[in-house]
Amino acid sequence: MTAKRNLLGLAWPALTDFFSELGQPEYRAKQLMEWIYQHGVSDFNRMSNFPKELRQKLEETAVVGAGEVIARQVASDGTIKLAIAFAEQRIVECVILRYHHGITLCLSSQVGCKMGCAFCASGMHGFVDNLTTAEIIEQIWWANQELAVQKQRVGHLVYMGMGEPLDNYLQVVNSIRFANNSSTFNIGMRNITLSTSGLVPRIRQLAEEDLSLTLSVSLHAPVDYLRDQIMPINKRYPLAELISAVREYVRSTRRRVTFEYILLAGFNDQPIHADKLASLLAGILANVNVIPYNEVPGLPWQAPTDKQVRLFMRALEQRGITATLRRELGPEIDAACGQLRRRLQGEE
User: Which of 98, 140, 296, 308 lies at 20 to 30 Å from 42 by C-alpha?
Assistant: First the structure.
């Protein structure tokens, strides 16, 4: 029996080809996209402007979405974490976050992660697979399904979930262009943030894509001897190479870059570290997103005290660095990236 074609996340040329194979005109593809992305409809029988025969043919040959939500956690502040299963061992997470500027979805780009960052739950059991463009897009679709009851939609995307986005470069860039399309989710490019642990060649490649998104660099240490201990990628692309690539990116795109900096108690959270961080970033059009560590069972790191956070922020401000303290959302659910997946797979 021939597998049904998944139409969710299918690019326009492939979608029009699909309808052509069914003997249908091109405008049917546009109608389908409106049903899927504007109205959130996956049931072909509800697509009332399709002839009955076409609805039956679609039921026989196609589906909208290849995954299912297998777990859902809701925090008191409205944060929602979804676990989506695409196939056995291919479980990913996405998180709906509510901010004053709108609703943000934190997306995964891989199942597991190769980067091996010492503080992160995503890669604790290694790398499984890259997500396809359609699987990345499906996370947005499920999030909108969740929000539809309140007549809300995702307005911002952050590629900061499971995986290293630039390690799945083509699928991630394709998903960004797809989500930005006015015929799909119509999410503004300036409302999209892509995070990387520091894949220098891919940062340079991204600068040539003409995407006015926000690049976010997961830095987490201001000197190589510290970053080497928590981020193995630093041994391949040390800070000098990384910062050089970021400076080139800013010059090329004229876009401000964000540096993510997780505070790990007793490791990188002292004023001297803030001072070294300020020196490292001098002259770059950037801001620093300071993040008190969200503790992960099985890992040795601890969150800093409130006092230490204040001292660190003050030290940055005294050096003229624009810094923001990330507001913690969803503290009572499996908030750290990868935790829910680990629990569902019995790894905790």
Answer: 98
